[in-house]
Amino acid sequence: MPPLIVGLFLVLHGLITTMVGAGAVSNGPALTLPSWFSWWPGPFGRSWLIDGLHLGTPVAVMGGLVWLASGILLIAAGAGHIGVGPLRDAWPLFAVVGSGLGLVAVALYFHPIYLAALVINLVLVVAAWGRVGTNALGS
């Protein structure tokens, strides 16, 4: 697949992840979803684990920071995959760490809507893992 397409996909995934993180850091109320999602017991946009254990706002903000760190690293991975300056050689490491943090965030905030993010992050970890340290752009 062309490096530009992969890089732009990584940037897009990173931007979405960062936006989720911004919402999680604000620790606002759960988002309202259509009634056909009422079968899912947990609220969307809130951590089932942090809320369930009543860990409070500081821990919820830390959970949001996991999303933000993941998103920023995925954006860096995408920019590096495209060939942007000093990020070029480190994109696989950014992709593995960013996707790994994304998996942690999805686990903390799991909702069926995040299934796509779960699959994308798993694929990225597996795909980029073998490229860490090889400095192979687009290969």
Overview of this structure, please?
With 139 residues, the protein is an all-alpha fold. The mean pLDDT is 89. It is elongated. It has helices at 3-26, 48-52, 57-82, 91-108, 115-129. The chain has one domain (3-27, 43-129). Helix 1 runs antiparallel to helix 3 and helix 3 packs antiparallel against helix 4 (91-108). It contains 5 helices and no strands. The termini are close together.
Number of strands: 0
What composes the largest sheet?
none
Taking the alpha carbons of the first and last residues, their distance comes to 9 Å
**Class computed from helices, strands and strand pairing:** mainly alpha
Low-confidence stretches at least 5 residues in length (pLDDT < 50)? none
Q: Give the overall pLDDT as a whole number.
A: 89
Return the string of H and E elements: HHHHH
The tally of structural domains comes to 1
Radius of gyration: 16 Å
Spatial shape = elongated
